[in-house]
Fold this sequence. Notes:
By secondary structure, this protein is mainly alpha-helical.
Amino acid sequence: MTKSLYFSHDYTASDDVTRLFLRQSLGMEGVGVFWYIIEKLAQGGGQLPLKIIPVLSMQMQVTETKVQAVIHNFELFQIEQEFFFSRRLNETIDLRKTLQDAGSRGAAKRWGTQTKIKLD
């Protein structure tokens, strides 16, 4: 069984202008491709190599052309060198990491300073 991880999904994501153009051009299939890519980016730590596009298209059973279009044509992803990522998703990943680190520090402080009971 795989562990489910959570990432933020804005309530108004479907009304975002870039996604409206995506939907107008590629229909709801394009929206599905977008969210699948977001999930894979989240699982991959925030960025993926462009060379994974054929694998993504095979997994989704859509054409490579469609995946290429979603990644390159709608300002949904940023491309740097041979990788692509979503700034919005990376902000969420960074926030989660910050909150996890703060929680860990708080727990360590709480449990580290707690008086230990000696059992005789």
